[in-house]
């Protein structure tokens, strides 16, 4: 059963109970804007994030007032906006926790508890709010002290409708088109202007016949020369062909269509406009969307706001409707042939402290070549070198040349090249002699 007292009392009670050292028991109402850095001292908030917290606290207050007055249109609008905002974010700020999330929980938990299954996860349901409520009441990221009997009962397997994943890039383009259409309509004029869905330019009444336009587009496509494939680098085979980089997971969420997958937004240091990247509106960074089969092996909260090592030149693949443009490197115990290789435990590879997103990662002694732009799946470059990826007794990640026949006989190469950046060695937490992939 969710906390069923009035919203203000519920929030105060929740804050006192969960953060007794950050919230004074003598306060009659919480200073929410000053509470976040006290409650989450490990998080550093930028001026933009502080403004966002203030805005969301104001939104929660507005929703609370609308609930008191039973203003259904206002309530519906705010809840819909909140649900849309959370579609591509783990928390209101993206990945960082804040007191605004707790305020949302205190206000909406009693409401979500009363929603029908259709209202929760139906075709027109509020999937993302339900997920957010479930995260807040169970995640160590927030550490809320809520007795089991007071939690909202959420059946994660009872999903009535799976929404189509949100593509941030397409969403941004659609907003631009809608804005252009609105401006054109407001401007008026002699010519009637309409925005054609799926195209970036407006059409004017009396324009060329669609068939003529299609013919022109076809001719343009035919005239465009085909891109030549990049030449395969010469020289002896080396794991340096694999593009390993430091990645910064900005946020990670559960894959909407696959229980075993996470969907992470990762800054890999790509230049703006690079292939298979998009602009992250929350941070302004160029990012990759990455699906990883770590759900159930690594807690979701441990995937938030952390540095990892990413494989950045595998050919992108679509995993249950979401295009994945990299791979997160992780270690797991070696298993005998035929045994479950995904049974865990699993540990992410840690870059050295202070490593920056996009920094190149390489095996010491094997960094004499440049990575290919995209690995050709037919040449099985990854499959050739990955068996040599291992961890040592000192918990360092390394390349064991003896496990890869293709590199045998190369003079001057180390038998064990440790994975490193300019700032130090890459490691795992506890797994010795593990395979890394």
UniProtKB/TrEMBL annotation:
Pfam families: Arc1p_N_like, tRNA_bind. SUPFAM superfamilies: GST C-terminal domain-like (SSF47616), Nucleic acid-binding proteins (SSF50249). It comes from the Eukaryota. Residues 201-240 are annotated as: Disordered. Residues 238-362 form the TRNA-binding domain. One of its GO terms (molecular function) is tRNA binding. The keyword RNA-binding applies. Residues 228-239 have a biased composition (Pro residues). CDD domains: GST_C_Arc1p_N_like (cd10304). This is G4 quadruplex nucleic acid binding protein. It comes from Aspergillus nanangensis.
């Amino acid at each position: 059963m969710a906390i069923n007292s009035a919203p203000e009392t519920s929030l105060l009670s929740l804050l006192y109970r969960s953060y007794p050292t950050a919230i004074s028991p003598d306060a009659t109402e919480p200073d929410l804007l000053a509470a976040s850095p006290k409650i989450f001292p490990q998080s550093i908030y930028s001026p933009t994030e502080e403004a966002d917290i203030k805005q969301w606290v104001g939104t929660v207050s507005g929703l609370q007032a609308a609930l008191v007055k039973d203003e259904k249109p206002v309530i519906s609008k705010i809840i819909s906006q909140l649900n849309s905002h959370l579609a591509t974010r783990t928390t209101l700020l993206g990945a960082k926790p804040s007191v605004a999330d707790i305020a949302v929980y205190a206000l909406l938990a009693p409401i979500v508890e009363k929603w029908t299954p259709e209202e929760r996860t139906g075709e027109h349901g509020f999937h993302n709010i339900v997920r957010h409520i479930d995260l807040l009441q169970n995640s160590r990221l927030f550490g809320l002290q809520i007795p089991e009997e007071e939690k909202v009962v959420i059946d994660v397997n009872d999903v009535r409708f799976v929404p189509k994943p949100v593509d941030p890039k397409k969403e941004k383009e659609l907003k631009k088109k809608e804005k252009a259409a609105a401006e054109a309509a407001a401007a008026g004029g002699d010519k009637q202007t309409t925005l054609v869905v799926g195209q970036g330019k407006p059409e004017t009444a009396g324009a060329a016949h669609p068939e003529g336009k299609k013919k022109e587009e076809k001719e343009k496509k035919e005239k465009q020369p085909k891109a030549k494939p990049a030449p395969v680098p010469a020289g002896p085979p080396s794991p340096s062909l694999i593009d390993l980089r430091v990645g910064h997971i900005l946020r990670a969420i559960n894959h909407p269509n696959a229980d075993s997958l996470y969907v992470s937004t990762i800054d890999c240091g790509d230049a703006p406009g690079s292939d298979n990247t998009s602009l992250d509106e929350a941070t302004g960074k160029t990012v990759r969307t990455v699906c990883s089969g770590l759900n159930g092996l690594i807690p979701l909260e441990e995937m938030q706001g952390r540095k990892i090592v990413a494989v950045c030149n595998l050919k992108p693949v679509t995993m249950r409707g979401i295009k994945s443009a990299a791979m997160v490197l992780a270690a797991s115990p070696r298993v005998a042939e035929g045994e479950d290789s995904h049974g865990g435990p699993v540990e992410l590879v840690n870059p050295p402290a202070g490593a920056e997103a996009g920094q190149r990662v390489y095996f010491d002694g094997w960094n004499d070549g440049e990575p290919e732009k995209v690995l050709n799946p037919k040449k099985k470059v990854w499959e050739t070198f990955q068996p040599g990826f291992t961890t040592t007794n000192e918990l360092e990640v390394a390349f064991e040349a003896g496990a890869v026949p293709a590199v045998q006989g190369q003079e001057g190469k180390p038998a064990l090249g440790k994975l490193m950046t300019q700032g130090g060695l890459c490691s795992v937490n506890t797994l010795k002699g593990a395979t890394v992939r």
